[in-house]
């Protein structure tokens, strides 16, 4: 007989794995004109990279027709947010100029934003791209530099009233994997994210429009990435909704010896662990599979609510 490893407390939460920030029934997240009910599981953010050189799906959605089709597919599969990006941030990636980045994302936004059934996030660190994307209907700015690389980004976010994702990164995509070192990676990420949230608040971004992200793979060794996932509750305890993007990343390849096209199971494991620790949004390339895994995870974490999903 297999021993059942879960322990239940009298509140009907799993005592071993219950989230440190349980979502209560009726809580919502507002993103522009969208009000998303917060479920027992994290929300799903589908990744749409309209780039020729992303580390995964490289070039598959660079053509606007292919990107629009993938947008629709991910919505159909259950994505609650789509994250649109026009510049790869893989280790060693060269930056692209704003003209080229807009050419890539603008063509897709023009076709999907007006009638999109889900909120669109723009994955950029450039204020000009953020502003043009917001003008075209994006309601969220996912900034891998946490509003640091472009001095005008905080103002754009504050003025337009969109939600900002503040992500931790050591260095820049070109340099970040050159021997990253920390004394205590999780503690340093926490202080960085708290400082960046304070900077956003000081620029006029309201607290409810701020999300944070430890930036898996952005200036981290395999060991650092493992500590981030294992100690995610410390980041959740900062009090901002936490987004986690582990999907298909190289730490999974290092553990399992598999390439980008074969990292689904590892990505699901990371997503489930992040959900158990209280992550509110999971960024994924594989929406259907991640949704199914997280539905089960959410049901176990909040059994009284599982029928609501
Ligand atoms: N990861 C990537 C890009 N943007 N944004 C957030 N908030 N968190 C992440 O973990 C994150 C992110 C890298 O993944 P991907 O977009 O698939 O690849 P590329 O940057 O090569 O386009």
In CATH terms, what is the architecture? Alpha-Beta Barrel
- Structural class of the secondary structure composition? alpha/beta
Largest sheet: 8 strands, parallel
Beta-strand percentage range: 5-15%
How many structural domains are formed by the residues? Answer: 1
Count of β-strands: 10
Question: For the record, what CATH class applies?
Answer: Alpha Beta
**Ligand kinds:** 6-hydroxymethylpterin-diphosphate
CATH homologous superfamily designation: Dihydropteroate synthase-like
What do you see in this structure?
With 309 residues, the protein is an alpha/beta fold. The protein has a single domain, classed as TIM Barrel (Alpha-Beta Barrel). The chain has 10 helices and 10 strands. The protein has an 8-stranded parallel beta sheet. Helix 2 packs parallel to helix 3. Bound molecules: 6-hydroxymethylpterin-diphosphate. 6-hydroxymethylpterin-diphosphate (HH2) binds next to strand 3 and strand 7.
């Amino acid at each position: 007989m297999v021993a059942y490893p879960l322990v239940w407390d009298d509140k009907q939460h799993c005592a071993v794995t219950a989230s440190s920030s349980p979502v209560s029934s009726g809580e919502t997240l507002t993103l522009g004109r969208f009000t998303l009910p917060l479920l027992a599981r994290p929300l799903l953010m589908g990744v749409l990279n309209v780039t020729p050189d992303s580390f995964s799906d490289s070039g598959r959605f660079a053509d606007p027709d292919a990107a629009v089709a993938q947008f629709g597919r991910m919505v159909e599969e259950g994505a609650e947010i789509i994250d649109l990006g026009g510049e790869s941030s893989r280790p060693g990636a060269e930056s692209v100029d704003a003209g080229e980045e807009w050419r890539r994302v603008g063509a897709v936004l023009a076709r999907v934003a007006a009638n999109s059934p889900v909120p669109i996030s723009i994955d950029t660190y450039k204020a000009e791209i953020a502003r043009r994307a917001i003008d075209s209907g994006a309601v969220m700015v996912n900034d891998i530099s946490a509003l640091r690389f472009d001095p005008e980004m905080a103002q754009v976010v504050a003025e337009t009233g969109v939600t900002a994702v503040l992500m931790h990164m050591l260095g820049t995509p070109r340099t970040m994997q050159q021997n990253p070192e920390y004394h205590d990676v999780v503690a340093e990420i926490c202080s960085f994210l708290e400082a960046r949230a304070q900077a956003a608040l000081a620029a006029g971004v309201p607290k409810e429009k701020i999300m944070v992200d430890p930036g898996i793979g952005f200036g981290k060794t395999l060991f650092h990435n493992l500590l981030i996932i294992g100690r995610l509750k410390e980041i959740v305890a900062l009090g901002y909704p936490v987004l986690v993007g582990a999907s298909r990343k190289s730490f999974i390849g290092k553990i399992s010896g598999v390439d980008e096209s074969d990292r689904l199971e590892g990505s699901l494991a990371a997503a489930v662990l992040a959900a158990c620790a209280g992550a509110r949004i999971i960024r994924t390339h594989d929406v259907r599979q991640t949704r199914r895994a997280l539905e089960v995870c959410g049901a176990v974490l909040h059994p009284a609510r599982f029928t609501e999903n």
